[in-house]
Specification:
two-stranded antiparallel ribbon, mainly alpha, 70% helix, 206 residues, 2 strands, 7 helices
Length: 206
Amino acid sequence: MRRALVETESEVGVDAMEDLGLKFFLTLNKSYWIGRCCTLQTPRIACLETALAYRQQFAELQHALSHRGVVRCGLLNRLSIADLEDNWHRFSALYIEACCGLGEAANLDASSPKSREAVAKRLAAMVEANSAHREKQLRAWNCRHMLQEERLQRQMARMERHALLRDARTERHALLRDRRAMSREDRDEARRRKLQSKSSRGRPRS
């Protein structure tokens, strides 16, 4: 954007650019907090560098919610409520700062629509208006979490049963081996006694 602005200014001249009165603003989305259909816009300002600086700060907050660089649905599956609330509080503070301007809020009356209090109230109203949707998402997440916990418990129970069965089979096989070994020893002993008996009967008496 900087390059395009510089190239345009070099083509038409500084005076023509000033006559255009270009203004820059940001359009921001926070679907979890204010809904998918609602967006936030920063005030229009003439300084591109200031707009880009705010854009970078908002992008960093958004990146904290992203997965591989993309913010997808199902934030609750990857982030905790505390993480989402912390990100929203930082976003709100930055948005209020962008709307009110650095150092200007102290000079504005609380009744002014550009005051920090007024902007904060507008944000709070939008958050409240979307509370039903967030509660629905939270209930759905709780249901999925409970199902996952139940599935995990069943899996653990199956693993424990399989382990018990495996141990029982191992013990049974060990007993069978011991019995077979004892049977072989008994047969060998019986065979030796039989041979000894035959040998003693076959000897001539003196």
